[in-house]
Protein backbone atom coordinates (compact mmCIF):
# COMPACT_ATOMS: atom_id res chain seq x y z
CA UNK A 1 0.00 0.00 0.00
CA UNK A 2 1.03 3.63 -0.37
CA UNK A 3 3.49 5.05 2.09
CA UNK A 4 2.27 7.67 4.62
CA UNK A 5 2.99 11.34 3.99
CA UNK A 6 3.13 13.34 0.85
CA UNK A 7 6.76 12.58 0.13
CA UNK A 8 6.31 8.86 0.70
CA UNK A 9 3.21 8.78 -1.47
CA UNK A 10 5.02 10.59 -4.24
CA UNK A 11 7.94 8.17 -4.09
CA UNK A 12 5.55 5.22 -4.14
CA UNK A 13 3.78 6.54 -7.24
CA UNK A 14 7.03 7.27 -9.03
CA UNK A 15 8.28 3.78 -8.18
CA UNK A 16 5.16 2.26 -9.69
CA UNK A 17 5.56 4.37 -12.84
CA UNK A 18 9.20 3.33 -13.10
CA UNK A 19 8.27 -0.34 -12.87
CA UNK A 20 5.49 0.15 -15.44
CA UNK A 21 7.83 1.85 -17.92
CA UNK A 22 10.46 -0.88 -17.47
CA UNK A 23 7.91 -3.62 -18.11
CA UNK A 24 6.54 -1.73 -21.12
CA UNK A 25 10.03 -1.44 -22.63
CA UNK A 26 10.65 -5.15 -22.14
CA UNK A 27 7.29 -6.00 -23.70
CA UNK A 28 7.98 -3.76 -26.67
CA UNK A 29 11.25 -5.58 -27.41
CA UNK A 30 9.68 -9.01 -26.89
CA UNK A 31 6.74 -8.24 -29.17
CA UNK A 32 9.05 -7.03 -31.95
CA UNK A 33 11.02 -10.28 -31.78
CA UNK A 34 7.80 -12.29 -31.58
CA UNK A 35 6.46 -10.59 -34.69
CA UNK A 36 9.70 -11.29 -36.60
CA UNK A 37 9.48 -14.95 -35.60
CA UNK A 38 5.97 -15.15 -37.01
CA UNK A 39 7.02 -13.48 -40.27
CA UNK A 40 10.00 -15.74 -40.87
CA UNK A 41 8.34 -18.95 -39.69
CA UNK A 42 6.87 -19.98 -43.04
CA UNK A 43 10.16 -19.62 -44.92
CA UNK A 44 12.23 -21.35 -42.26
CA UNK A 45 9.84 -24.24 -41.81
CA UNK A 46 9.65 -24.83 -45.56
CA UNK A 47 13.46 -24.93 -45.69
CA UNK A 48 13.57 -27.42 -42.82
CA UNK A 49 10.90 -29.48 -44.59
CA UNK A 50 13.17 -29.82 -47.63
CA UNK A 51 16.06 -30.96 -45.44
CA UNK A 52 13.95 -33.44 -43.47
CA UNK A 53 13.40 -36.63 -45.46
CA UNK A 54 12.05 -38.72 -42.55
CA UNK A 55 8.78 -40.53 -43.17
CA UNK A 56 7.98 -41.12 -39.51
CA UNK A 57 8.60 -37.71 -37.92
CA UNK A 58 6.31 -34.75 -38.79
CA UNK A 59 8.18 -31.97 -40.55
CA UNK A 60 7.58 -29.28 -37.94
CA UNK A 61 7.36 -31.17 -34.64
CA UNK A 62 10.10 -30.08 -32.24
CA UNK A 63 11.42 -27.48 -34.66
CA UNK A 64 13.46 -24.57 -33.34
CA UNK A 65 10.72 -22.15 -34.38
CA UNK A 66 8.14 -24.00 -32.31
CA UNK A 67 10.36 -24.02 -29.25
CA UNK A 68 11.10 -20.31 -29.63
CA UNK A 69 7.40 -19.60 -30.03
CA UNK A 70 6.45 -21.44 -26.84
CA UNK A 71 9.25 -19.82 -24.82
CA UNK A 72 8.56 -16.28 -26.02
CA UNK A 73 4.80 -16.65 -25.59
CA UNK A 74 5.25 -17.67 -21.95
CA UNK A 75 7.66 -14.78 -21.31
CA UNK A 76 5.31 -12.22 -22.86
CA UNK A 77 2.32 -13.55 -20.92
CA UNK A 78 4.33 -13.24 -17.69
CA UNK A 79 5.31 -9.65 -18.50
CA UNK A 80 1.70 -8.78 -19.34
CA UNK A 81 0.63 -10.24 -16.01
CA UNK A 82 3.22 -8.19 -14.12
CA UNK A 83 2.24 -5.00 -15.95
CA UNK A 84 -1.42 -5.66 -15.16
CA UNK A 85 -0.52 -5.95 -11.48
CA UNK A 86 1.38 -2.65 -11.56
CA UNK A 87 -1.56 -0.92 -13.23
CA UNK A 88 -3.88 -2.28 -10.54
CA UNK A 89 -1.59 -0.88 -7.81
CA UNK A 90 -1.54 2.49 -9.56
CA UNK A 91 -5.34 2.47 -9.67
CA UNK A 92 -5.46 1.65 -5.94
CA UNK A 93 -3.07 4.51 -5.24
CA UNK A 94 -5.25 7.04 -7.05
CA UNK A 95 -8.22 5.91 -4.93
CA UNK A 96 -6.34 5.78 -1.64
CA UNK A 97 -6.73 8.30 1.18
CA UNK A 98 -4.57 11.40 1.07
CA UNK A 99 -4.54 11.61 -2.73
CA UNK A 100 -6.83 14.21 -4.32
CA UNK A 101 -9.63 12.42 -6.18
CA UNK A 102 -9.64 15.00 -8.93
CA UNK A 103 -5.93 14.88 -9.67
CA UNK A 104 -6.16 15.03 -13.47
CA UNK A 105 -2.45 14.41 -14.00
CA UNK A 106 -2.49 11.13 -12.05
CA UNK A 107 -5.63 9.89 -13.79
CA UNK A 108 -4.21 10.82 -17.19
CA UNK A 109 -0.98 8.96 -16.46
CA UNK A 110 -2.86 5.89 -15.26
CA UNK A 111 -5.08 5.87 -18.37
CA UNK A 112 -2.03 6.11 -20.62
CA UNK A 113 -0.44 3.07 -18.97
CA UNK A 114 -3.73 1.18 -19.28
CA UNK A 115 -3.92 2.00 -23.01
CA UNK A 116 -0.36 0.76 -23.50
CA UNK A 117 -1.19 -2.48 -21.69
CA UNK A 118 -4.30 -2.95 -23.82
CA UNK A 119 -2.36 -2.32 -27.06
CA UNK A 120 0.39 -4.77 -26.10
CA UNK A 121 -2.15 -7.42 -25.10
CA UNK A 122 -4.02 -7.03 -28.40
CA UNK A 123 -0.80 -7.16 -30.42
CA UNK A 124 0.37 -10.29 -28.60
CA UNK A 125 -2.87 -12.21 -29.19
CA UNK A 126 -3.00 -11.12 -32.85
CA UNK A 127 0.60 -12.19 -33.53
CA UNK A 128 0.06 -15.47 -31.67
CA UNK A 129 -3.05 -16.25 -33.72
CA UNK A 130 -1.21 -15.50 -36.99
CA UNK A 131 1.67 -17.73 -35.91
CA UNK A 132 -0.66 -20.64 -35.10
CA UNK A 133 -2.47 -20.22 -38.44
CA UNK A 134 0.82 -20.31 -40.35
CA UNK A 135 2.01 -23.35 -38.40
CA UNK A 136 -1.24 -25.20 -39.13
CA UNK A 137 -0.89 -24.43 -42.83
CA UNK A 138 2.74 -25.57 -42.84
CA UNK A 139 1.80 -28.79 -41.06
CA UNK A 140 -0.80 -29.48 -43.73
CA UNK A 141 1.66 -28.76 -46.53
CA UNK A 142 4.27 -30.91 -44.81
CA UNK A 143 1.82 -33.80 -44.67
CA UNK A 144 1.14 -33.44 -48.39
CA UNK A 145 4.88 -33.36 -49.15
CA UNK A 146 5.39 -36.47 -47.05
CA UNK A 147 2.65 -38.31 -48.97
CA UNK A 148 4.26 -37.31 -52.27
CA UNK A 149 7.69 -38.48 -51.14
CA UNK A 150 6.20 -41.74 -49.90
CA UNK A 151 4.57 -42.28 -53.27
CA UNK A 152 7.79 -41.51 -55.14
CA UNK A 153 9.83 -43.86 -52.95
CA UNK A 154 7.39 -46.75 -53.38
CA UNK A 155 7.97 -49.95 -55.35
CA UNK A 156 7.25 -48.25 -58.66
CA UNK A 157 4.41 -50.61 -59.60
CA UNK A 158 1.86 -47.82 -59.72
CA UNK A 159 4.21 -45.65 -61.78
CA UNK A 160 4.78 -48.52 -64.22
CA UNK A 161 1.06 -49.16 -64.50
CA UNK A 162 0.38 -45.49 -65.16
CA UNK A 163 3.09 -45.45 -67.81
CA UNK A 164 1.51 -48.45 -69.57
CA UNK A 165 -1.90 -46.80 -69.47
CA UNK A 166 -0.45 -43.65 -71.04
CA UNK A 167 1.25 -45.63 -73.79
CA UNK A 168 -1.93 -47.55 -74.54
CA UNK A 169 -3.88 -44.31 -74.66
CA UNK A 170 -1.38 -42.83 -77.11
CA UNK A 171 -1.57 -45.98 -79.23
CA UNK A 172 -5.36 -45.70 -79.41
CA UNK A 173 -5.09 -42.05 -80.41
CA UNK A 174 -2.70 -42.96 -83.24
CA UNK A 175 -5.04 -45.73 -84.35
CA UNK A 176 -7.98 -43.32 -84.46
CA UNK A 177 -5.90 -40.89 -86.48
CA UNK A 178 -4.92 -43.57 -89.03
CA UNK A 179 -8.53 -44.71 -89.38
CA UNK A 180 -9.66 -41.14 -89.99
CA UNK A 181 -6.93 -40.73 -92.64
CA UNK A 182 -7.97 -44.01 -94.30
CA UNK A 183 -11.62 -42.93 -94.38
CA UNK A 184 -10.60 -39.56 -95.85
CA UNK A 185 -8.57 -41.29 -98.59
CA UNK A 186 -11.46 -43.64 -99.39
CA UNK A 187 -13.93 -40.73 -99.59
CA UNK A 188 -11.61 -38.77 -101.89
CA UNK A 189 -11.14 -41.86 -104.11
CA UNK A 190 -14.89 -42.38 -104.27
CA UNK A 191 -15.43 -38.76 -105.32
CA UNK A 192 -12.75 -39.04 -108.03
CA UNK A 193 -14.21 -42.30 -109.34
CA UNK A 194 -17.70 -40.78 -109.42
CA UNK A 195 -16.37 -37.79 -111.34
CA UNK A 196 -14.48 -40.02 -113.78
CA UNK A 197 -17.54 -42.24 -114.20
CA UNK A 198 -19.60 -39.22 -115.22
CA UNK A 199 -16.97 -38.14 -117.74
CA UNK A 200 -16.69 -41.65 -119.13
CA UNK A 201 -20.47 -41.92 -119.52
CA UNK A 202 -20.48 -38.67 -121.46
CA UNK A 203 -17.62 -39.83 -123.67
CA UNK A 204 -19.18 -43.25 -124.16
CA UNK A 205 -22.47 -41.67 -125.13
CA UNK A 206 -20.74 -39.69 -127.82
CA UNK A 207 -18.73 -42.70 -128.99
CA UNK A 208 -21.87 -44.83 -129.16
CA UNK A 209 -23.35 -42.22 -131.44
CA UNK A 210 -20.26 -42.43 -133.62
CA UNK A 211 -20.25 -46.26 -133.47
CA UNK A 212 -23.71 -46.39 -134.87
CA UNK A 213 -22.41 -44.45 -137.83
CA UNK A 214 -19.00 -46.12 -138.20
CA UNK A 215 -18.60 -49.92 -137.56
CA UNK A 216 -14.81 -49.64 -137.06
CA UNK A 217 -15.34 -47.20 -134.21
CA UNK A 218 -17.84 -49.66 -132.65
CA UNK A 219 -15.14 -52.37 -132.54
CA UNK A 220 -12.74 -49.94 -130.85
CA UNK A 221 -15.37 -49.00 -128.24
CA UNK A 222 -15.90 -52.65 -127.29
CA UNK A 223 -12.16 -53.05 -126.68
CA UNK A 224 -12.08 -49.90 -124.56
CA UNK A 225 -15.02 -51.16 -122.46
CA UNK A 226 -13.20 -54.42 -121.76
CA UNK A 227 -10.05 -52.57 -120.72
CA UNK A 228 -12.06 -50.16 -118.49
CA UNK A 229 -13.69 -53.05 -116.60
CA UNK A 230 -10.28 -54.65 -116.09
CA UNK A 231 -8.73 -51.38 -114.84
CA UNK A 232 -11.68 -50.84 -112.46
CA UNK A 233 -11.18 -54.28 -110.95
CA UNK A 234 -7.46 -53.63 -110.50
CA UNK A 235 -8.03 -50.21 -108.93
CA UNK A 236 -10.66 -51.57 -106.56
CA UNK A 237 -8.34 -54.35 -105.48
CA UNK A 238 -5.47 -51.95 -104.83
CA UNK A 239 -7.68 -49.67 -102.72
CA UNK A 240 -8.97 -52.63 -100.72
CA UNK A 241 -5.48 -53.92 -100.03
CA UNK A 242 -4.28 -50.46 -98.91
CA UNK A 243 -7.27 -50.12 -96.59
CA UNK A 244 -6.64 -53.52 -95.00
CA UNK A 245 -2.94 -52.76 -94.52
CA UNK A 246 -3.70 -49.44 -92.83
CA UNK A 247 -6.23 -51.05 -90.49
CA UNK A 248 -3.80 -53.82 -89.58
CA UNK A 249 -1.10 -51.24 -88.76
CA UNK A 250 -3.51 -49.20 -86.67
CA UNK A 251 -4.59 -52.15 -84.49
CA UNK A 252 -1.34 -54.04 -84.14
Concise summary:
Helix content is 87%, strand content 0%.
What topology does this entry show?
Blueprint: H1 6-51, H2 64-95, H3 104-152, H4 157-213, H5 215-250
Pfam families: V-SNARE_C
Transmembrane segments: 233-251
Protein name: Golgi SNAP receptor complex member 1
- Level-1 CATH class name of the largest domain: Mainly Alpha
Shape: rod-shaped
Q: Which fold name is given in CATH as the topology of the largest domain? A: Methane Monooxygenase Hydroxylase, Chain G, domain 1
The structural class is mainly alpha
CATH architecture assignment name of the largest domain? Up-down Bundle
- Estimate the strand proportion: under 5%
User: How many distinct folded domains?
Assistant: 2
Strand and helix order = HHHHH
- Helix amount, in percent? over 70%
Oligomer: single chain
N-end to C-end Cα span: 100 Å
What's the total count of β strands? 0
| Mean pLDDT metric | 75
Biased composition (Basic and acidic residues): 45-54
Keywords: Golgi apparatus, Membrane, Protein transport, Transmembrane, Transmembrane helix, Transport
GO cellular component, one term: Golgi membrane
Protein name: Golgi SNAP receptor complex member 1
Amino acid sequence: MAATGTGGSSNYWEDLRKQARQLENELDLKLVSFSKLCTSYSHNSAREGRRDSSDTTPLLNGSSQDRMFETMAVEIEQLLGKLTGINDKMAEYTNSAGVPSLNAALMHTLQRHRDILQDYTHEFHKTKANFLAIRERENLMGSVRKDIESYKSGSGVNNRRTELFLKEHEHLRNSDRLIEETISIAMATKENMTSQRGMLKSIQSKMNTLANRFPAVNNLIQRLNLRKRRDSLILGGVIGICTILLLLYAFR
